[in-house]
Amino acid sequence: MRGFRHVAPLFLALALGGCATSPTGPLLDAHAHYDPAGQLRPRSGLRAGDLVSEMGEAHVDKAVLLAVAPTGADATSVRQTNDQLASFARSHPGHFLTIAALPSADADAALREVERVATLSFAGVKLSPERLDLAAPDVRGLVARASALKLVVYVEGWWPDAAYQVGKLALALPQARLVLTHLGGVRFADVLVFRVLDLHPFTPRNVWFDLSGVAPLYVDSPFARQLVWVCRQVGVDRVLFGSDWPLTSLEDAAASVRRLGFSQTEQTLVFKENAEALFHW
């Protein structure tokens, strides 16, 4: 398959404007894609390289792979994509955790797929970007069942109000482990709602945020310092490195996070330790 050939609260003043020394050791990418159909082709026209080769070059030892089902896929096609992802991960033992895609048009089928992938050692599921009404009873029930099965639930962060909706979901389901992707996207300041929630002792601290997409987008912008400030306000111990591969190369994604100005201690958390704690990996 194309792109998948086999191969064996810190002080605010710390390095806000500069590039801190990078941590040594291998990195853990908490948001890459398994895209056997090649749907996620960068608009730049550049072809994605081989994932495992890129991991070696970028010193990424482990990655969390999100299944990308074909556009408009029915439950059978989604299941086939998840099975292909499981097979790929088994061929590289110890290097990948898997996040299943779910059918968007059939709530019952989505629930059955949650049950099925939990038996296949999947680490989590991602809610379809086509179905993001987190207040809908069937969606909430789906997240509740996934959480009961110890699955991490990824939620698309690019959409408006994503941070607020995930915040309400986190309050309703305190046992859930949720990842708001892309740090909430272009409205990343919205995640400050979690800083407000943290002021209340009854609030669960069960939401993490990945930097996929937003780190490369903002690293050379006037908003870079704001992005780092927001991360520190919600807690750097909840922030995950994510590449969004193949939309961004692993090296470019990692370089963007390093250049944002996190301290070395913060980079160690973001690049590895936070994901290890989230996934018990």
Could you write a compact summary of the structure shown?
It is built from ten helices and eight strands.
Q: What are the salient characteristics of this protein?
A:
281 residues; 38% helix; TIM Barrel; alpha/beta
Any idea what the shape is? globular
Strand order across the largest sheet: 1-2-3-4-5-6-7-8
Q: How many DSSP helices?
A: 10
Distance between the termini: 27 Å
Count all strands and give the number. 8
The fraction of residues assigned to DSSP E strands is 5-15%
Average pLDDT score: 89
Assembly context of the chains: single chain
Give the C-alpha Rg. 18 Å
**Largest sheet at a glance?**
8 strands, parallel
- CATH topology, by name, is TIM Barrel
What is the CATH homology-level superfamily?
Metal-dependent hydrolases
Structural class: alpha/beta
CATH architecture: Alpha-Beta Barrel
Structure description:
- It is built from ten helices and eight strands.
- By secondary structure, the chain is an alpha/beta fold.
- It has one domain: Metal-dependent hydrolases (TIM Barrel), CATH 3.20.20.140.
- It has an eight-stranded parallel sheet, sandwiched between helices.
- Helix 3 runs parallel beside helix 4.
- The chain is globular.
- The relative contact order is 0.16.
Break the fold down into its secondary structure elements and pairings.
Blueprint: E1 27-34, H1 51-58, E2 60-67, H2 75-90, E3 96-100, H3 107-118, E4 124-126, H4 137-148, E5 152-155, H5 162-172, E6 178-180, H6 193-197, E7 207-210, H7 214-218, H8 224-234, E8 239-240, H9 250-259, H10 264-279
Helix pairs in contact: 3-4
